[in-house]
């Protein structure tokens, strides 16, 4: 079996903030579990807003989408802005519409989400991410929706939150390892029995 590949997608405009730090901890654990990992910061790629073209990905995000398509799984991390994901990440999610329109190109990939919050909205944010990705055929292992409250968390709560981050890295790798590595997924519409 080939080595599992996990892509980390940082949706924060800050490349060295808490969101990025937690994402890197998750990817570090994925490496410990035997995966090859890569981190991308959307702020380095996004130069324009989604214009509604569902036939092609914008040129500035094409390389990120290619990395996503080549990975077995991915972790998306975002700060919470006004009870939802960052505008960088929302724009990226809109760009991924082409993958769903084309042929559900993300079907069979494994994913998880990390949202960092100051006051609230983390749970809503990870759910707002999970919905579209679920519709695209992405699978989620246990403990894959993480929200990290920076302001209200006690030190003891931070300890288990950080363990959850590492558990996310482990579970994405383990789930990706048990899934088929070809295009013959068992949830394919064409394989439905009548």
Automatic annotation (TrEMBL):
Keywords for the protein's UniProt record, in alphabetical order: Flavoprotein, FMN
Organism: Candidatus Curtissbacteria bacterium RIFCSPHIGHO2_01_FULL_41_11
Family matches, as Gene3D superfamilies: 3.40.50.360
This protein's name: NADPH-dependent FMN reductase-like domain-containing protein
Annotated InterPro entries: Flavoprotein-like_sf, FMN_Rdtase-like_dom, ISF_SsuE-like
UniProt GO MF annotations: oxidoreductase activity
Taxonomy, superkingdom: Bacteria
Domain NADPH-dependent FMN reductase-like: 5-146
